[in-house]
Amino acid sequence: MRNIKLTIEYDGTNYLGWQRQKVGPTIQGTLEETLSRILNHRVHIRGAGRTDAGVHALGQVANFKTTSSLDPASLGRALNALLPRDMAIIKVEEVDLKFHAQFSAKKKTYFYQILSRPVRSAIWRNYAWWVPDRLDLEAMKACLPYIQGRRDFASFRNTGTSTRTTVRTVFEATIKRVPVAGMIRFEITADGFLRYMVRNLAGALVRVGQGRMSPEDFVQLLDARDRSLAPPPAPPQGLYLKEVIYD
């Protein structure tokens, strides 16, 4: 038995998210079907995280077990030849049998893109959240120190989601302009994320940038640990899983 690790890039626009479902295309389902064709046996893959419908990834990680002797380089070439063009295998590695894409992860990095300009974009419509207002970047940055460190993010979880704890450790959080006119990127690295956590944080930060909330209001929302007090989440198309860190 061998354990194979995949690093995957995908455009989530045409998928119902990572997790396999009975109806509709998913990232996991597409990968499993393609791997089964190549390896001639049923394959079950485990992902580092379950991205939602419309969310993208530059460095999603998954692993699966196989008895096939096909070498990693040949497997990677076969996958990239057969997978849809909106999905690519960046790296294939054979790893220790104990490796688990989700449970072995130490950190994950996501970023969220906001297009802050008066006119909508034809190019970025599936890859950023268009906000027609000019956002106050300094006010948004003033919120970041309060989400770094070990914090309770109950105010920023998905409504109705049950989880053992809503406490997470954020190692780094930044907001900056990138070399696309009007584009702002919010990037965050943590030991784990609640469902919708990054989108909920991005939604609140945009409210601050619009002047509809102050940085002090943001801190009060974080301290309240009450999702019902928070603004709606940012839409999915601006969210990217950038990297999963294991060492």
From TrEMBL:
Q: Which residues form the Pseudouridine synthase I TruA alpha/beta domain?
A: 8-103, 148-247
Record EC number: 5.4.99.12
Q: Name one GO molecular function term.
A: RNA binding
Q: Does the keyword Hydrolase apply?
A: no
Say which family it is in: Belongs to the tRNA pseudouridine synthase TruA family.
Q: What is annotated as the active site?
A: 52 (nucleophile)
Q: Which organism is it from?
A: Thermosulfuriphilus ammonigenes
This protein's UniProt keywords: Isomerase, tRNA processing
What is this protein's record name? tRNA pseudouridine synthase A
Question: What's the top EC group for this one?
Answer: isomerase
- Extract the Pfam families matched here: PseudoU_synth_1
Q: Which residues bind substrate?
A: 110
What is this enzyme's catalytic activity, as reactions?
uridine(38/39/40) in tRNA = pseudouridine(38/39/40) in tRNA
Is this entry keyworded Isomerase?
Answer: yes
- UniProt-listed NCBIfam families: hisT_truA
The encoding gene is truA
